[in-house]
Amino acid sequence: MKLFDDIKRTRVKQSNHTESKYSFLNESSWKWVDYYRNQVEEWYSKFPDDLDFHTQFTSRIDWQHSSAFFELYTFALFSKLGFDVSYHESIGARKIDLALVSDSSKIHIDCVLSGEPNLNQSIERIEKQIEDIIEEVESPLYWISADFIRASDRTPKVSRIESKLQSEIASLDLEIGEIKTMEWSDKNWLIEFTFFKKDPPVERSLGSIVSSQRGGLVDGPSMNILRRTLNSKRGSSYGVTSPYIIAVNSYNLTLYDELIKGVLFGDMKVRGFNNNLYVENPFFYKNQPQNTSVSGILIVKGLHASNMGVVDIALWENPWSKNPVSQEFKDIGRFVPRLNDSKQVDKIEFMEGLKAWEILDIERRYFEYDH
After folding, report:
1. Cis before residue 200, ω within 30 degrees of 0?
2. How confident is the model at residue 119 (pLDDT cuts 50, 70, 90)?
3. What is this structure's pTM?
């Protein structure tokens, strides 16, 4: 049983924003999508048989597909690093996603999405409609990015949005590197559009999207979403006694390393901002070490089908963990905290590792096959 249908593919049109991720990946004839399918099928050929996993991966519900894809990606990553990887091992009454065996040691990994946008399905549907409207605006020279600052389950007058965008595009005269912003609003919606010149020109109009439900940009909400995600996967809730890693695929677009540091260790300052940002209850330390059953947090920054080779991956180690994993993960980039005499973090060193494309032995930028 394969993950994708064995069919002749002739589809060349791009995905619209109301279409499921799996449907597009299953039907597209684009070269990069074909490359992606071949890689994923190769990984899946070594994956343990599991009907529930197959159902999740082929789901037309995006978060189910994305969750399964992240599990398979993590499985492939550690298989390529030489681990013997099993799936859904039982620990007590619960199942944990992955178990890695190297020599005589065993490491458990649980995978989770963080900041997955559009928790409100009505808002999701409307935002997707607006994204499709943006794509329909002819804009050969300028990207149009949208930040949904305020949203509602009441559909705005999308024809007015399209008309406003068309008028603004017609008046633009920007050089490369210049940007212009514009706000569109009604009593329920506030959208900030940003325009900047394409280099080189391409057909698509939509640049980046910040959903109203992605937890904000560089501020408290982004940090709080990651903190809540980690809390849902604490090792103590499983009863693990071996090394345990939480693998997080974060969709927060600006989850900078300074923010991750703040979520895990507390006191921190965001570069470029005047005020310090704090997490009231850092995951690894509040007055004393906590969550010591967690060996580290593997942060993957926005994994999608198109960026498997270049996505940023790094392990943030817990210096107070009862089961450290530093040596087993030496081939992955690691943030290693160094403790002072008081057993508190004095500094955090980054240890360079292999890039994702090197580990997985895939083309680094296969997405450019069709560009």
Report:
1. yes
2. low
3. 0.75
